[in-house]
Specification:
Oligomer: single chain
Number of strands: 0
Radius of gyration: 51 Å
Order of helices and strands: HHH
Low-confidence stretches: 123-159
Largest sheet: none
Number of helices: 3
Shape: rod-shaped
Mean pLDDT: 72
């Protein structure tokens, strides 16, 4: 059997028109996708611009970085104040240590002067922090030493380790 010849096309441009119709359909889809992507990009840009402008207005003193810088400055000034307080306390401790050393020297001097002989009014009540001087004395003990003594008996010795025995030995008359 012989092959039947295909009939000639009615119009020789029909295959070209079909090809152009396929290209047109593909181009329409691509155009719609491009328009949707462009709309998303514009919306994202507008949202980011809004967020950027709005974030600058949120804090009262400016941006968040300025707020943090202000907090750091406040903390530094607080730390400096604490350092000054520590220095003042340290200086007071040094002064107290020197005063204690002077009082210990005075007690030692009074013990060596008075010895076991004379005893006088102590002016002490036996309570920590109380103190006073006997009449005529210009200086009383402070800081819980118990009081100043005349005649070599220091009442503050009872509050020190081994001081009770020393105070008894001083106040008892020799045999």
């Amino acid at each position: 059997m012989a092959e039947q010849p295909t009939p000639p096309p009615a119009d020789p441009l029909d295959p070209i028109r079909a090809w152009l119709a396929e290209i047109d359909a593909k181009l329409a889809v691509r155009t719609r996708v491009l328009l949707v992507l462009a709309a998303i990009a514009i919306g994202t840009a507008a949202a980011s611009l809004f967020v950027a402008l709005d974030s600058g207005d949120d804090s009262e003193g400016g941006t968040a970085a300025e707020g943090l810088q202000q907090e750091v400055a406040e903390l530094r000034s607080e730390v400096e104040g604490l350092r000054e307080s520590i220095d003042a306390v340290s200086n007071a401790a040094v002064d107290a240590e020197s005063a204690v050393g002077a009082l210990e020297g005075r007690v030692d001097a009074l013990e060596s002067e008075g010895g076991a002989g004379t005893t006088g009014p102590t002016g002490a009540t036996g309570e920590t922090g109380s103190g006073g001087a006997a009449p005529g004395e210009a200086e009383g003990a402070s800081g819980g030493d118990g009081g100043a003594a005349t005649g070599g008996a220091a009442a503050g010795e009872a509050s020190q380790p081994g001081g009770a025995e020393r105070a008894e030995a001083i106040t008892e008359p020799p045999p």
